[in-house]
From TrEMBL, chain A:
GO terms for molecular function: protein-N(PI)-phosphohistidine-sugar phosphotransferase activity. It comes from Virgibacillus oceani. The keyword Transcription does not apply. Pfam families: PTS_EIIC. The phosphoenolpyruvate-dependent sugar phosphotransferase system (PTS), a major carbohydrate active -transport system, catalyzes the phosphorylation of incoming sugar substrates concomitant with their translocation across the cell membrane. This is Permease IIC component. Signal peptide: none annotated. It comes from the Bacteria. The lineage of its organism: Bacteria, Bacillati, Bacillota, Bacilli, Bacillales. The chain crosses the membrane at residues 33-54, 74-95, 102-121, 133-155, 176-196, 216-239, 284-305, 329-357, 394-412. GO terms for biological process: carbohydrate derivative transport; phosphoenolpyruvate-dependent sugar phosphotransferase system. It is a multi-pass membrane protein. The gene is gmuC. InterPro entries: PTS_EIIC, PTS_EIIC_3, PTS_IIC_cello, PTS_Sugar-EIIC/EIIB. NCBIfam families: cello_pts_IIC, lacE. Residues 9-411 form the PTS EIIC type-3 domain.
From TrEMBL, chain B:
This is PTS system oligo-beta-mannoside-specific EIIB component. The modification Phosphocysteine is found at residue 8. GO terms for biological process: phosphoenolpyruvate-dependent sugar phosphotransferase system. GO terms for molecular function: kinase activity; protein-N(PI)-phosphohistidine-sugar phosphotransferase activity. Gene3D superfamilies: 3.40.50.2300.
Length: 431, 102
């Protein structure tokens, strides 16, 4: 591969990365998920504790049910209704970006979303179904947060105020300053709700879910789209650009929605509907030492590395690699712009995606249970936790590590040989 | 006291550098404060810093950060990928000091 061609590709990729990462909606979306993340992880921890392996065999059925009931609210209040926190986060971050009063942006987004949400469940009115605050409402929530933040900003900028007669204290008329933009914004959403109640969709939530969310998640839950996403992450990283942060800003809503569907099924004890979820990517692909599953590369360096350069990289990148931080490997090996490495770099993740997908599709390994495992969790442990405490998840990760090592072996061997020979020549010349 | 801010996607990989740079600064006898943050925190943290260094994998953030750096009045640059891969505290510290103008 000549350097002109590489330069050409980088000239294309860099602006894409710049656009995707600095787009105000995508960056509000990413930051919105960041706001929700601590709550999501709190919920996940208690799903793991509530489903400890073998506990159901150790204690009586009644005691186990009581135990699960006692811990249930932890995830029901966070993980299962994560849409709420994402929406408030997006409304807040977008309004902050416009230098408005961010907290109003957050609550207006949330209220707008609730206005569009069904407020009836199985004939009982005056309730909000929690399902619509989780996976089902994810896309509606995101769009609502974008639009409400824009409307709020628009009405604030219009600066329509209620003229108070002279003599009314300034604080009183000021108290109306947030009132008017909020009232107008929420009224728009109320009108939207009323219009939709006359259509066959009944609610906006139903409309967005049917028209946008279902087709997109159906596409995103398939193997082809996942392979495309995985390849994109790898290609960006090959040029030294942070692949996940770029690709996730587009795929996260889909992956989180799929994740939440699995969580509901896992907690209800029914069959898990999806294989591809947030955790499929985070634990089984990225969570294997970092993007490109470089923990396998580190282990391979320990096994076959002879050159000083590789040994040094193994020392630098090994410890952080167990926690899925792999920049020393990516920039040190180097993986970036290395024509020899591009083959295993692109092939290994695709092979692992296919193996993982089919081992879950055939029932050998349970699919991810919807638990969000922090991405710095070391492999083996993360596979166990992500699949809802299933040992098969851990075994699959170990097997995948071995597969990646086999794919990398001839290429790393060659790289090592090159380094080793150059080092020997240098020592000879020096003496 | 030189205050050096590092930023990457989540402040993880740059934090590997922080320790190496601190060791190097100690050896050199330079009084520094070095810390690493996630990219979304960088704009607010810049107020407390004398220089901002960006991880090479986040170099597409340079344009956005440049505007903010101008407001705050500090220099910024992207860390050299080779030095980044080697977690080369010496090279990165020197780069930071050079940018500050020492």
């Amino acid at each position: 591969m000549n350097s002109k061609f590489m330069q050409f590709l980088e000239d294309i990729l860099l602006p894409i990365a710049d656009k995707l990462n600095n787009n105000r909606y995508l960056s509000a979306l990413r930051d919105g998920f960041m706001v929700a993340l601590p709550l999501i992880i709190f919920g996940s921890i208690f799903v793991v504790i509530a489903n400890l392996p073998f506990l159901d065999k150790l204690i009586s059925e009644d005691a186990y049910a009581a135990y699960q009931n006692a811990l249930g609210p932890a995830s029901a209040a966070t993980l299962s209704i994560m849409g709420i926190f994402v929406i408030i986060g997006i409304g807040y971050k977008l309004t902050e970006h416009y230098k408005g009063e961010a907290i109003y942006g957050g609550v207006v987004a949330f209220a707008s979303f609730l206005i569009l949400t069904p407020q009836v469940l199985e004939g009982v009115s005056g309730v909000i179904p929690t399902a619509s605050l989780g996976a089902q409402g994810m896309f509606l929530g995101i769009f609502t947060a974008f639009i409400s933040a824009e409307l709020y900003r628009f009405f604030v900028q219009k600066n329509w105020t209620i003229k108070m007669p002279a003599g009314v204290p300034g604080a009183v008329s000021k108290s109306f300053s947030a009132l008017i933009p909020i009232t107008l914004t929420l009224t728009v959403f109320l009108v939207i709700r009323i219009i939709f109640s006359y259509t066959s969709f009944d609610t906006v939530q139903n409309f967005i879910y049917t028209i946008i969310q279902q087709p997109l998640t159906a596409l995103g839950s398939g193997l082809p789209a996942t392979i495309v996403a995985v390849l994109l992450i790898q290609v960006f990283w090959f040029f030294g650009l942070h692949g996940q942060i770029i690709v996730n800003s587009v795929f996260d809503p889909i992956w989180y929605a799929l994740n939440d569907e699995n969580l509901s099924a896992f907690q209800a004890g029914t069959e898990l509907p999806n294989i591809i979820t947030k955790q499929f990517i985070d634990s089984f692909l990225v969570g294997m030492g970092g993007s490109g599953m470089t923990l396998a590369v580190v282990l391979l360096i320990y096994l076959i590395g002879r050159s000083r350069q590789l040994k040094e990289i193994g020392k630098l990148g090994g410890p952080s690699g167990f926690f899925n931080v792999n920049e020393p490997i990516i920039f040190g090996l180097p993986i970036i712009m290395n024509p020899l490495i591009i083959i295993p770099w692109l092939i290994a993740p695709v092979v692992v995606t296919i193996i993982t997908y089919y081992s879950m599709a055939t029932g050998l390994v349970p699919p991810p249970a919807g638990i969000i495992v922090p991405w710095t969790t070391p492999p083996i442990l993360s596979g166990f936790l992500a699949t809802g405490n299933a040992w098969q998840g851990a075994v699959l990760q170990a097997f995948n590590l071995a597969v990646v090592m086999v794919i990398w072996w001839p290429f790393l061997k060659l790289l090592d040989k090159n380094y080793y020979e150059t080092e020997n020549k240098e020592t000879k010349n020096a003496s | 006291m030189k205050r050096i801010l590092l930023a990457c996607s989540s402040g993880m990989s740059t934090s590997l550098l922080v320790k190496k740079m601190e060791e190097e600064a100690k050896e050199k006898g330079v009084d520094v404060e070095i810390w690493a943050v996630a990219q979304d925190k960088a704009p607010s943290e810049m107020e407390k810093a004398d220089v901002l260094l960006i991880g090479p994998q986040m170099r597409f953030m340079k344009k956005k950060f440049s505007k903010r750096a101008e407001e705050v009045g500090i220099p910024l640059d992207v860390i050299d990928p080779v030095a980044y891969g080697r977690v080369d505290g010496k090279a990165v510290l020197n780069m930071a000091l050079e940018l500050i103008g020492e």
